[in-house]
Design a protein that fits this description.
With 356 residues, the protein is of the alpha+beta class. Helix content is 36%, strand content 19%. Helix 4 (113-128) packs parallel to helix 6 (152-172). It is elongated and about 90 Å long.
Length: 356
Amino acid sequence: MATMPPGWYEVPGRPGVILWWDGLRWHEKASDPNGTAPGGCELCGQPLGMRRLAGNRRCGDCRRRVTEALKEFRHDATYVLHQGMPEGPHWDGILGKAASCGVPPAEALLSITDASVRFLDRLVTFAAADGVVSNQEIQQFDRFVHSLMIPPQAAASRRQWLDRQRVLGTVRSGVLPRLRPADLYLDIDETCHFDTMVQSVRWLKAGPVKDPGRLVATDKKLRFLSGRGGWETNWSKIMQATARSADTVHLQMTQIKGTGEYLVGDAEYTAALIETAARISRRQILSAPGQRDTRAIPQHIKSAVWNRDRGRCVECAAEAYLEFDHVIPLSKGGATSEGNLQLLCRRCNLNKGARI
């Protein structure tokens, strides 16, 4: 016999006959193994009081039972999604209880889509907070997308964000790409890590003056190649590279030439690569690939900050693409503590960086 719908059971000694248990009593009417009599309720098989032209074919008792079960399921499931992980015996029990009341798993999961998407936002934010996104965290994300039946569009945008954090984390850990530009002449022992078109921006009284060129980072030097001459400098003279917006990087050097703003295609990636290359050149300690920074935020502090800020950016109340931000930056002596951490969306975090 095929797998029976929830609540239906075989009658011993009566092959081919099953009975419906509604959680309180057995229904007297037996039904065929398909679960319903012709034109009857799709859950219990009882005759419908009137023909339903649309929607599920359910009798009044079953509709009320499913409505109450869904209400209870949403309450219990939302609590788990807000506080913990939707897996394990407790989660299975919540789903099983709804199924025993005639709620199909797909219907139950679709009723909590908003809470499931918010859970994904928390999962992504926590994973990216340490600067390293592991294969296990990627697999966990994919598993929950499947088990919670997250809509493809919502899942795809968050997976893309997670993949990007993984790339940035790899760069910041010291694993830099190796390029071979055909039209760039380097020393025989020099390795190119970055090569992109940019615009240098100089601010004059009359307004900004843009100088198009090419920003090239190698293991020895940082170069800006331009028709107006450009510049090159050793990594020891690079003090800081900061993403001030999605397309603007500010370079701070020990010299005037080269210091200033540059328009690039991806400011965050550019700043991360330049900062990392400078640290490698200065032989500063970098985390080994895949190893989390010793200043990583403990899990209990992440949870406390997330709950305090209600999973929203404290500046604009955005709920997606969130980051844990140090109110007083680590570089200025700020601590990794609940009192010095807040949630900011990516845009507000970039705006804050531009103000510091």
